[in-house]
Amino acid sequence: xxxxxEIIRGERGINQEELAKALAVSRQxxxxxxxxxxxxxxxxxxxxxxxxxxxxxxxxxxEEE
Length: 65
Description:
This protein has five helices and two strands, in the order βαααααβ. It has 65 residues and is mainly α. Strands 1-2 form a two-stranded antiparallel ribbon. Helix 2 packs across helix 3 (27-34). It starts with a strand and ends with a strand.
């Protein structure tokens, strides 16, 4: 699954550490999400979407294989 997390975070001037703290995850989790090495749980996806006041679909792009 691809995502626009790094772009959205950058547009809002939020660094990985700030986002990680707000979501109660590690900075490494944010980095792994942005690099496509980790797919979030549905709970984390909702927390991210709610934090940015966007829908999950605005951030995460599901591609069927």
